[in-house]
Amino acid sequence: MLRGLGLLVMLMLAVTSCKEEDDFCSSVDLRCECVYMGLVDEAGNSLLQDGGPYDPEAIRLFRDDQEIELFAEVDDQLTTLLFYYRDMISGVVYSLQLSETETDRIRITTTLIDGRCGDYLELTEFRYNGELVEGQGETYIIEKRS
Question: How far apart are the C-alpha atoms of 126 and 140, rounded to whole Å?
């Protein structure tokens, strides 16, 4: 009898633990595995603008035959390009075609993290034309010098 009661208590704890884990994971906002990249001049003005130096709709991010989809995100102060690094190969250089005559290089490095609610990629390094760029959260602002 005592053994059966102990087994019942263990079973209830297991079920309750799974329920708490499921509730926790369903309430967690999953990482987007994305980057918001802005290009600014030396004065901090956005270079990404329709009719401006770089038209966000005309910019391409690619490697060989792989094209990474870009999304223009516009707010009051800065236009950024959103892209998902989960679609990229870690440590490989990608071309960022800004115009017909100007192409820069992006290389991201990621690490696979075994998270509590599932695996995800964490961005560990962002390089623009070979230079390390420090981000603020998921946003990376690159100053383009003349």
Answer: 8
Rounded Cα–Cα distance for residues 6 and 93 (Å): 58
- Single-letter residue type at 44: G
Which residues lie closer than 8 Å to 132 by C-beta, 6 or more apart?
125, 126
Cβ(117)–Cβ(107) below 8 Å: no
Its sign, for the CA torsion 51, 135, 77, 146, is: negative
- Show the tokens assigned to 125: 């390094």
Q: What is the distance between the terminal CA atoms of the chain, rounded to a whole angstrom?
A: 82
**H runs (alpha helix) in 28-146:** none
Classify residue 31 as exposed, middle or buried by CB count within 10 Å of its CB (0-12, 13-18, 19+): middle
Checking if the pLDDT of 1 tops 90, the result is no
- Overall pTM surpassing 0.70 (yes/no): yes
Q: How far apart are CA 109 and CA 116, in angstroms?
A: 22
Q: What is the pLDDT of residues 50-67, one digit of tens each?
A: 878 999 999 999 999 999
